[in-house]
Amino acid sequence: VQLQASGGGLAQAGGSLRLSCAASGRTSSTDGMAWFRQAPGKEREFVAAISRSGSITNYADSVKGRFTISRSNAKNTVYLQMNSLKPEDTAVYYCAASRTNTWDSDPYKYDYWGQGTLVTVSS
């Protein structure tokens, strides 16, 4: 399974960006999907996760109410709509997929990882 993230870029504080992550290969092996991020000099942290059906989502407290995770199983793609961006949202964002139907915040629950896309939010 390969995951290709896109949509990163530069945004102003208060602005919006939409990230996409397309899965290819043996996509039948991917159930739960998630986004994580890593800011310079910091550890990777959980952002949001979504179940196979999309009916269950999980968010980090820091993004709750501002970010929305969604997915299209027909397109094998997961999205992260990011609104009301803050400078502290600046990070490389990684998408991840699990072989199990999880929406866990634990990165060890995910088996496949994309290459990351950089989001920079200016104040």
Could you please describe the fold and organization of this structure?
The protein is mostly beta strands. It is built from no helices and 11 strands. It has strands at 2-6, 9-12, 17-24, 33-38, 45-50, 57-59, 67-72, 77-82, 91-97, 112-113, 117-122. Strands 2, 4, 5, 6, 9, 10 and 11 form a 7-stranded mixed sheet that branches. The chain has a 4-stranded antiparallel sheet with strand order 1-3-8-7, with no helix packed on it. A hairpin with a 6-residue loop joins strand 5 and strand 6.
Key phrases:
0% helix; mainly beta; 7-stranded mixed beta sheet; 4-stranded antiparallel beta sheet
Bin the strand percentage.
over 45%
Shape field: globular
The quaternary structure here is single chain
Taking pLDDT < 50 over at least 5 consecutive residues as the criterion, the unreliable ranges are: none
For the biggest sheet, the summary is: 7 strands, mixed
- Name the structural class: mainly beta
Q: How widely separated are the two ends?
A: 37 Å
Mean pLDDT, rounded to whole units?
96
Write down the secondary-structure element order: EEEEEEEEEEE
The number of E-state strands comes to 11
Rg value: 13 Å
**SS element count, helices:** 0
Question: What share of the residues lie within helices?
Answer: under 10%
Task: Sum this structure up briefly.
The protein is mainly β.
Q: What is the secondary structure topology, with strand pairs?
A:
Elements: E1 2-6, E2 9-12, E3 17-24, E4 33-38, E5 45-50, E6 57-59, E7 67-72, E8 77-82, E9 91-97, E10 112-113, E11 117-122
Parallel strand pairs: 2-11
Antiparallel strand pairs: 1-3, 3-8, 4-5, 4-9, 5-6, 7-8, 9-10, 9-11
